Known about the structure:
The complex is a heterodimer.
Chain A: E1 4-7, E2 10-14, E3 19-25, E4 32-38, E5 45-51, E6 56-59, E7 62-67, E8 72-77, E9 86-94, E10 97-100, E11 104-109
Parallel strand pairs in A: 2-11
Antiparallel strand pairs in A: 1-3, 3-8, 4-5, 4-9, 6-7, 7-8, 9-10, 9-11
Chain B: E1 5-7, E2 10-13, E3 19-24, E4 31-37, E5 44-50, E6 53-56, E7 65-68, E8 75-79, E9 88-95, E10 103-104, E11 108-112
Parallel strand pairs in B: 2-11
Antiparallel strand pairs in B: 1-3, 3-8, 4-5, 4-9, 5-6, 7-8, 9-10, 9-11
Amino acid sequence: KNQVEQSPQSLIILEGKNCTLQCNYTVSPFSNLRWYKQDTGRGPVSLTIMTFSENTKSNGRYTATLDADTKQSSLHITASQLSDSASYICVVSFDYKLSFGAGTTVTVRA
Amino acid sequence: GAGVSQTPSNKVTEKGKYVELRCDPISGHTALYWYRQSLGQGPEFLIYFQGTGAADDSGLPNDRFFAVRPEGSVSTLKIQRTERGDSAVYLCASSLTLGAEAFFGQGTRLTVV
């Protein structure tokens, strides 16, 4: 059973709108939680990295939150752009091992 | 190099054949990881190298899979007697040190027909 669950599986939003992606995990303990963006046919690229003591981390229009008590994280995309169309993957790491979620596929339409 | 480079980007092979997938990590990165990503899934851990040695190969699915990193830089993932179920994108990542941020290559898409 996957230890990192993401929802929704996919979503479609209009350009300029905001959206929030969810991640629930059971990995324990963990070193940090990461959100990656993966464009079609490309490798994942890191967006944010948070340790268990951090509640929020921003990278431009991307803001990640973490609640280590409930083992939940979210990624909020503000003022979406067409280039935001990609798969967003939640990754929980302990030491060198990364546990990946299946990802949320975001499609931004004009 | 500027980033992690994987070759080939695409590989189509017949069932039963042998394939080699190559990964050139970022220069100076001591840690190197291989992952396998099936369609619609997140990457799954295969093997991790620290320097030249395979520190953890617990993710390799069976003994048809083997990986080497003889000089502590370039790594090769080798798959013997390929099966259709081996079809996936094989991702390589490297990090400066153990547990540091991992940078991924673009992957090799392997198709076994």
